[in-house]
Design goal:
Largest sheet: 8 strands, antiparallel
Distance between the termini: 49 Å
Radius of gyration: 21 Å
Number of strands: 18
Shape: globular
Helix content: 10-25%
Number of helices: 8
Order of helices and strands: EEEEEHEEEEHHEHEHEHEEEEEHEH
């Protein structure tokens, strides 16, 4: 029997801005734009992470199997003051800790909670940094796990004749500058994830064998009949199960649309949460509009008989979408997205479930509830 060991798991790394959507301030508020790490932060500058992409929302961990410590780690060089805040359920913001560092050249650990389960009246954490001459290599929230080995995350994509673009997108994710100075995080992700791509346009397997080997990324591409969205999702899942049959790790499957625009941090956080969640937990992600990146399209919804518990009056058979049309930017609407939503379905732009759940429910999966 393998002895369990303490495993240090980064959950949320500091996510830098994407230049195309910097103006919405979804990532951070700062005196200087940050597009990649490491970043030299001159004295007198500040960084505020109390935003949509860099706040640490606690509810997923509270609902998980994890009961241990949550800490903030700073991989920095130089001098600064760090202030850590939390927001409670009624909306008030409180200062939790204040730490000052002078001429540091190492990773600093700041414990936030001895157990993530208590207290429960914390919706999110965030921090601000006042620089006195600083280089930021990386900053991240992390958990300490007692595990024998990690769960494997298999991302599933379906496409019709768009395999080139799908592979190119995956390749860009692995070559993204956001991985710089995050070697531990990158290695964890690369070693414990894979991608399975179904192309229903024709025979594609042979065309990609050499190129996939050159990428040194765990991607499998195969052809299959076009059976529509739900049918193709089931075929892709069956094939993925075949690829994974010899793995000793437990598997989590994540269905992605081939046109979804997900950052490397989004996929890493999905992988990290799969290590912490209960096996019976199924989860999705809020979907934002490509044409208006600060506006939420939906975060799951209620359907059918669930309408009787919804406060929204309905007049059609279409689902009621949670947070539909809500705009984000700086601190706007963060309380709303921090709280659990009542849902009866979620979109499979990003939809994660475990092999334990798959074995329990079986095929065919109800992958489409609306046309």
């Amino acid at each position: 029997m393998k002895k369990k060991k303490i495993f240090h798991l980064p959950i949320n790394n500091l996510e830098v801005s994407r230049e195309t959507i910097r103006k919405y301030e979804l990532f951070h508020i700062s005196s200087e734009d940050i597009y990649e790490l490491p970043f030299e932060f001159p004295a007198g500058n500040f960084l505020d992470t109390g935003t949509l992409r860099n706040s640490f929302f606690t509810n997923p961990l509270i609902e998980s199997k994890y009961t241990g410590e949550l800490s903030l780690y700073l991989d920095i060089y130089g001098s600064c003051k760090v202030l850590i805040y939390y927001q409670s359920s009624e909306g008030s913001v409180h200062l939790l800790k204040e730490e000052s560092y002078k001429n540091e050249d190492s990773v600093q650990k700041i414990p936030l909670q001895g157990s993530i389960k208590t207290p429960q009246d914390i919706l999110r954490y965030f921090y601000t940094i006042e620089s006195n001459g600083l280089i930021i290599n990386n900053i991240y929230y992390a958990a300490d796990l007692y595990v024998t080995n990690l769960r494997h995350t298999n991302f599933l994509l379906r496409t019709y004749g768009n395999t080139d673009e799908v592979i190119n997108s995956i390749y860009k994710l692995f070559k993204s500058k956001t991985w710089l100075n995050k070697e531990e995080t990158f290695d964890l992700f690369k070693e414990n994830t894979s991608f399975t791509v179904l192309d229903t346009s024709g025979n594609v397997e042979d065309a990609y064998i050499e190129s996939l080997e050159d990428l040194n990324i765990n991607i499998n591409v195969f052809s299959g009949p076009n059976l529509g969205g739900g049918g193709n999702a089931a075929i892709n899942l069956l094939k993925a199960e075949e690829y994974n049959k010899d793995k000793t790790q437990k598997i989590d499957y994540v269905i992605l649309d081939d046109d979804v625009q997900a950052t490397s941090d989004t996929l890493y956080r999905t992988f990290a949460y799969n290590q912490l969640k209960k096996p019976e937990t199924t989860f999705g992600a809020p979907i934002f509009m490509a044409s208006e990146p600060n506006r939420c399209w939906e975060m799951g919804g209620v359907w059918g008989r669930e309408f009787k518990t919804s406060k929204i009056k309905f007049n059609s058979i279409s689902p009621q979408l949670n947070l539909h049309g809500l705009k984000f930017g700086k601190y706007e609407n963060l309380i709303e997205i921090s709280k659990p939503q009542k849902i009866s379905y979620t979109t499979f732009n990003l939809f994660s479930f475990s092999e334990e759940n798959l074995k329990k429910i079986g095929y065919p999966g109800a992958f489409f509830l609306r046309g």
